[in-house]
Amino acid sequence: MMHYTRGQNTGSLNDNYTQASNVNLEKINFEKIQKNPKNPKTPKEKRKILYSAGLTIVSPLPDSINPQLERITEKYDGYVGRLSTTETTIRIKSEYFETVVEEIEKLGKITRKNIYGNDVTEQYWDAQIRLDNALETRKRYLELLKMAQNVEEAILVERELARIMQDIDLLKGQINRLDNLEEFATITISIKEKKKLGVLGYVGVGLYKSVKWFFVRN
Known about the structure:
Elements: H1 11-18, H2 30-34, E1 49-59, H3 65-75, E2 79-82, E3 87-93, H4 97-105, E4 109-119, H5 121-147, H6 151-183, E5 184-193, H7 199-217
Parallel strand pairs: 1-5
Antiparallel strand pairs: 1-4, 2-3, 3-5
Helix pairs in contact: 5-6
């Protein structure tokens, strides 16, 4: 993994750029190129919070829950991430997060409700700064590639370019993933069937209520 630090271009690096007529890329310290990026301060913007929730619904008609969840999801500009008879995951615009949770609670008896908020502000801006630095490093490598005077020198720079491009793709993927998780909150709903009482069960309930009533009267 590459490390980026504060600093300005070193004298030796500047010489490599200015002396294009006799450049020898094999003697270039690629590590120095990577250790002289811009390192801006983290922008003072709103915190980046990823919201999610986990609920368990108990219903006498569990098969009716998923169709209702799909309707709620569509109503609030979301989408279904996973759908099954026992557990469903939906993604909802974060601005509707609390409203959707409240609507889901009306679908049955809620036996579990967990709300999470994960602050990834520092992680996000760290990745953004590293991406900016990687893009700057790529620009420098492209300038060096133009200075290559033979195939060997070109291959040397292209190898470094391929490596930095891989880092750029990974950082872009990380940033896009965090953006998506911020835009769409994740709600996971476990679905359970309410147990139906048999004949003996109803007798037991009736007996319990009778005994309870007897003690209350006395």
